[in-house]
Request: fold
Amino acid sequence: MANIHDVARVAGVSISTVSYALSGKRPIGEKTRLRIDEAVRELDYMPNAAGRMLGGTRTRIFALTAPLRNDTYAPAHMAFVLAVVTAARAHDYDVLLLTEDEATGGLRRVSSSRLVDGIIVLDVSVNDERADLVRSLGVPAALIGVPGNAEGLVCVDLDFEAAAALAVDRLVDAGHTSLALLGHPRAVYERGSNFPMRFRDGFLARAAERGVPAVFTMVEKDSPQIRAALGGVLDGAPGGAEGAATDSVHRGATGGVHNGAPGSAHAPTGIVVHAEEGVHKVILEEIAHRGLSIPADLSVIAGVPTFDTSSFTPALDSIPLIPVDSCVRAVELAVQQLDGTVEPRVELVAPKYRDHGSVAAPRPGS
Amino acid sequence: MANIHDVARVAGVSISTVSYALSGKRPIGEKTRLRIDEAVRELDYMPNAAGRMLGGTRTRIFALTAPLRNDTYAPAHMAFVLAVVTAARAHDYDVLLLTEDEATGGLRRVSSSRLVDGIIVLDVSVNDERADLVRSLGVPAALIGVPGNAEGLVCVDLDFEAAAALAVDRLVDAGHTSLALLGHPRAVYERGSNFPMRFRDGFLARAAERGVPAVFTMVEKDSPQIRAALGGVLDGAPGGAEGAATDSVHRGATGGVHNGAPGSAHAPTGIVVHAEEGVHKVILEEIAHRGLSIPADLSVIAGVPTFDTSSFTPALDSIPLIPVDSCVRAVELAVQQLDGTVEPRVELVAPKYRDHGSVAAPRPGS
DNA sequence: CGACATCGTCTAAACGTTTCGACGACCGGT
DNA sequence: ACCGGTCGTCGAAACGTTTAGACGATGTCG
Reply:
């Protein structure tokens, strides 16, 4: 296998000239460059990676830490991994894959052996030990998702408030005059998870701005409670067996509490669901079971699902977390940390709306 | 960040002594080793990866090329990737992830820049350009799956014949006296795909050995034809609208052709399905639709599914391609190629049976 | 016509390992 | 007492780059 010395010899120059010619870091004479190019082609020269790492200041490798939690939706997860690899390649970076069991040990190893220039952290959870580790390692890193303590870290995530606002806008624009948000289980909000709260706040705030009454309900994970919560919302009052509506916040246009009577004319016709896949499915079942059809009777939007809503029956409009968008940005930020210093921050990616036909004008009678 | 010189200085020895102490490649005095260990701990020394690659003969990195074809079942795919990474780590190897769009270019790049010591090729198809590339690169490599031309390559795959035989044994042991195999579409066999054919052959051969009549039918992908094929098999004769049974091969215990009359007492009660996920689902629907229950009326085994059969209704016994088994072996073979030379070969992994309760004794009356 | 920047190239010093060969110390066998 | 062998250690040469510094040659501007 040819090395840079061979190229230099064939081209009749010194190795540094070859190096400069290839990197372009110093001007090289026209004829010389041509001779070098020719030699490179003739010898099929490709710089040795180890030599490059050692001599240069970069390894051109990023570590990607991607836990495979059992609650992960595999296709989405794969899409993220793929997106990171693709984005990294666009910057001439390769990606070293670290898995769950190696999470902290692996990060320590690859960073203190200087095998990687930086770290991309996928699927960040609220209390993610990798966040603290990355901070303490002081290695360039970009997290996709925001940990509980994001101080000193570079994070990328969807703009949840904007996503919620977008959902509200779509529904209001379609003519809906009463909205509901079915959220995560109570525990999620109490744990202080970032996004569910930001989504909720964005939802209520934009509804208030648009002058439309909106109700927010937390939804537990088991089917009866899901059905009860939906019932409570649709009936405009505590209706579920579990009294799920005690978890509800009703707000009028001015932000005040609004209590609809059962069967009230103000029952929401625009529903946003910000929950997990299973919850969506049960809700769809229950809606069908009640003889309501989407979007004729009810318009439904899936808020920031990490799964595929197009295979639901019916398919749901959604505002998904788009892998490519956040991964591209995360890689960019990682690369930028290597030269100019990027100050720590949480960077929000603009939401995009995926139309699958589950939103329409409300039935005139309602 | 401490380097080997620092360790040597603190321990009061030369760097080569440190290196030998850490690698164990030469005997080192007791006290000296202790001093070195102490210095390593004190300085939190970890060898620089680039230095190691350059000085040594290994990079301690494998490339993993994993296409993400759209017909891939994501959870299985992820399981393979995970299994490779885990297996590699057990040999102190890291894994560099190459994706589809980089398939050949990436392989060329990482191997000729000597960034990796070897290549693990996942999800190998019959005509896989990566197979030829790997052969021509002459880099240590292990393929999981067998390409059309496996000459000169090291491959690992499930033992499909043994898997089929295992399925037959289970059914015959349970008391079934007439079996059927529902296979892939005709085109798959005509294309010369290795495993479907080997599975079929193993199935028919073992059935003959056990003295049980068996019928094999190719099944196209669209629902009506799937139903027709199943109908043809269950009715023991051409029964499907499409005449699907013309694709059938009926064999008696001696290997001769056996033509059951419609509704014959010899209609198969033990069914093996070696096809894709969608086909399985339609078959299960059709079985339910005919008022047959599993395993009371019919015993069904999924042959080498790459997807999860435990979520089917009912769950199906299966003989899956187990990621960990093949990946562990592939990594082992890759590692072995680095020192002792491993001669090219196709290595078959023994099948394992996953019981989900879809096989039982046939109804006495049948 | 000097002063001075710029261009093009080279020499040489890193970068951090591994590993070969050498060498003294010590041991057992003759 | 001598020889061969193993043990423990060291010095030095790789491995293949990048890059700072030096140095003529060439061009520009006063």
